[in-house]
Design a protein that fits this description.
The chain has one domain (20-209): Uracil-DNA glycosylase-like domain (Uracil-DNA Glycosylase, subunit E). The chain is globular and about 40 Å long. A hairpin with a 2-residue loop joins strand 3 (108-109) and strand 4 (112-113). A 4-stranded parallel sheet has the order 2-1-5-6. A two-stranded antiparallel sheet has the order 3-4. It is α/β, with parallel strands linked by helices and 218 residues long. It is built from 9 helices and 6 strands, in the order αβαααβββαβααβαα. 36% of the residues lie in helices and 9% in strands.
Length: 218
């Protein structure tokens, strides 16, 4: 339980990782952009101090908002297929952390979901990553995650960024978003399935096979 003098926006002292459990409580209590959301805030994330792989997507969709389970939708089904993982493996939080660029469902606009709220990533990601010192690889799924983490290093288009995935190794691996709306992109960029996915599975498989840590999920 948070103390009376704590705040959802209070960071840890410089250089000192905050206890991850306390930090998650602050994230879950955050109301910074509540007035801009269509529903009460419901941050969706899974973190652990032992996680070695971090998955950064865009923002929860409606189904994920309702269930509170990240990637619990058709996009998640395709992502797990890309990774060659079962649901059980994917949701093993002791090894895999999931923190979207925007932590809450932003609502919809004609043609799809609204972009992630811009407040979330700069406010919470640095603190969360600092509290997860075992992270060795971050999957950047979609243009918003790539824009935040890669900045000017990313390519002119998402395809350029994904095609140049080796340039961001070993820390990052950029991917397109596995949304059903991106089927046309996948059909136009067949090299993604033939060239990138085998490398992705090899990299993730090697990373997780070396992790024998146990830890409680938060």
């Amino acid at each position: 339980m948070r103390s009376s003098n704590s705040s959802p926006t209070t960071p840890a002292e410089p250089g000192q990782p905050e206890d991850l459990g306390r930090l998650v409580e602050k994230v879950q209590a955050c109301t910074v952009c509540a007035a801009s959301l269509p529903h009460p805030p419901r941050p969706v994330l899974r973190v652990s101090p032992t996680a070695r792989l971090l998955i950064v997507g865009q923002a929860p969709g409606r189904r994920v908002h309702e269930s509170g389970i990240p990637w619990n939708d058709p996009s998640g089904d395709l992502l797990r297929q890309w990774l060659g993982m079962t649901r059980e493996q994917f949701y093993d939080t002791a090894r895999i952390a999931i923190v979207p660029t925007g932590l809450c469902y932003p609502g919809t606009v004609k043609g799809g979901d609204l972009p992630p709220r811009p407040e979330c990533a700069p406010l919470w990601h640095p603190q969360l990553i600092q509290a997860m010192p075992q992270i060795r690889l971050t999957l950047l799924i979609g243009a918003y995650a790539q824009a935040y983490y890669l900045g000017r290093r990313r390519g002119r288009t998402l395809a350029d960024t994904v095609h140049a995935w080796r340039d961001f190794s070993p820390d990052f691996f950029p991917l397109p978003h596995p949304s059903p709306r991106n089927r046309l992109w996948l059909k136009r960029n067949l090299w993604f399935e033939t060239d990138v996915l085998p490398a992705l599975r090899e990299r993730v498989g090697a990373l997780l096979s070396t992790s024998d840590n146990g830890g409680a999920a938060l």
